[in-house]
């Protein structure tokens, strides 16, 4: 491991700790040349599938795209960055468990919607409105009715 300060390759591990979920090992290192300390994070290299887009093109899975979509859907909602990162992690695990070399973007989109449905209903509807490309208010209302179980909450009935 190259020292970020002096670029020397010789260093020693002072301390190692596993993350709470056991997916990452944090290592505290000391450079033998300049004596400065730095931290590294070690994780298993995961092979994720190629994503088949709706137009037929293929691209590597990119968790950043999912995170950006989640951030937009969750904007001004009481959802933490850790919650969104957890969603991304669960989607990656879902894709790895499937073990497929390719998967369609629709499978990923539906999984994101499942996760958002559990996390926050407003964020879910926001994401669904973009993902499903609602053409008009009727499409939007049918999604909201499905979300509500076709029964409006008391606050809407009394308004």
What is the global morphology?
elongated
- Taking the alpha carbons of the first and last residues, their distance comes to 63 Å
Number of domains: 2
How many beta-strand elements?
Answer: 6
Instruction: Please compute the radius of gyration using only Cα atoms.
Output: 22 Å
Helix percentage: 40-55%
What does this structure look like?
45% of the residues lie in helices and 20% in strands. It has 159 residues and is an alpha+beta fold. The chain has two domains: 11-43; 50-157. Helix 1 (63-73) crosses helix 4 (121-131), helix 3 runs antiparallel to helix 4 and helix 4 runs antiparallel to helix 5. It starts with 10 loop residues before the first strand and ends with a helix. It has a three-stranded antiparallel sheet, with no helix packed on it. It has six helices and six strands; from the N terminus they run βββββααβαααα. It is elongated and about 65 Å long.
């Amino acid at each position: 491991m190259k020292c970020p300060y002096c670029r020397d390759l010789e260093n020693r591990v002072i301390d190692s700790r596993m993350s709470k979920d056991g997916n990452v090992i944090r290592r505290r290192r000391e450079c033998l040349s300049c004596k400065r300390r730095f931290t590294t994070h070690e994780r298993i290299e995961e092979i994720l599938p190629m994503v088949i887009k709706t137009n037929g093109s293929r691209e590597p899975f990119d968790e950043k795209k999912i995170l950006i979509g989640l951030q937009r859907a969750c904007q001004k909602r009481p959802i933490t960055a850790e919650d969104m990162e957890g969603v991304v992690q669960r989607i990656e695990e879902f894709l790895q468990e499937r073990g497929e070399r390719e998967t369609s973007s629709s499978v990923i989109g539906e999984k994101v919607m499942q996760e958002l449905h559990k996390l926050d209903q407003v964020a879910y509807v926001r994401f669904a409105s973009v993902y499903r490309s609602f053409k008009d208010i009727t499409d939007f209302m049918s999604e909201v009715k499905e979300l509500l179980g076709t029964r409006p909450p008391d606050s809407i009935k009394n308004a």
